[in-house]
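Is copper (II) ion placement plausible here? Inputs below.
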Amino acid sequence: MTGDRIVVDIVGLALIGFIVWFFWLVKAKGVRAPLTSGGYQEQMVLVKGGYTPDVIVVERGKPVRLNFVRQESASCSEMVLLPAFGKSAHLPEGQTVPIEFLPAEPGEYEFACQMGMFRGKLVVE
Ligand SMILES: [Cu+2]
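Reply from A.M.:
I modeled the complex. Tokens:
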């Protein structure tokens, strides 16, 4: 009985730790887009009440592909704009829409919905 309780407590604490790590640390530092076999730095971005992840870290000089998946019907998020790279895309609900570009210069570049309410950041190193 007490043994079970300790296990439940440990699992609970581990879960809290994971949530803190995931939402706080990962969000603060951003997610590094992994290099795929096609030579792209590729990252899936969930569009639902915002962008997840909302900070994406890439290396300069290698092509990037962001795969936006919109899982909501709110009109706010139906477009995504990447003005620094002259890119924009319509995001039909439930479809994966890739946006490709080559980040040549290091820096921080915003992406946002057409109204600028949802915002994300691309960090080029
Ligand atoms: Cu919007």
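Short version: The longest helix spans residues 2-29.
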